[in-house]
Design goal:
15% strand, GMP Synthetase, Chain A, domain 3, 6 helices, 49% helix, flat, alpha+beta
Length: 144
């Protein structure tokens, strides 16, 4: 197998990022329009936050969250039940050799952002951050 001199394995390639974003937009549009013939799925307003693809572009993992985070497990189950139809809609919109297999995972990014915000609001953390800010007020001069 030929080695790829451009991709050193330190993250997704430009092609993976581009295809992931295209799949994300397509899934978002399909879910927004209600193109899937499942009334249970269509009752959810689902946000597709990110789509990560495998290096061979045959597997796409979509990070999703229903509006407000309510009934997340039900929404995830509905998406998984309708994976075949969603894959068909994605394949129709894209010009890839193979339609990627879709996997759905709950997006926990918003929960982590809330945890970080709560952490930064704690008094001892705020005090430490303000102390670090006071040390940097030397006018931007290098003391060396």
């Amino acid at each position: 197998m030929a080695s790829n001199r451009f991709n050193t394995g330190h993250g997704p390639s430009q092609r993976q990022l581009r295809v992931g974003e295209l799949i994300r937009r397509t899934l978002s549009d399909v879910l927004l329009r209600g193109d899937v013939h499942d009334p249970h799925l269509n009752r959810f307003s689902i946000t597709v936050g990110e789509v990560r693809t495998s290096p061979d572009l045959k597997v796409a993992t979509a990070y999703v969250l229903p509006l407000g985070g309510h009934d997340a497990e039900e929404a995830l189950a509905a998406l998984r039940r309708n994976t075949g139809e969603l894959r068909h809609h994605v394949a129709k919109e894209m010009t890839l050799k193979y339609a990627p297999n879709l996997r759905f995972v709950l997006d926990e990014t918003f929960d982590r952002m809330d945890d970080t915000r709560r952490l930064l609001e704690q008094d001892r953390v705020r005090r430490d951050v303000e102390q670090d800010g006071d040390d940097d007020e030397s006018g931007g001069r290098d003391e060396t």
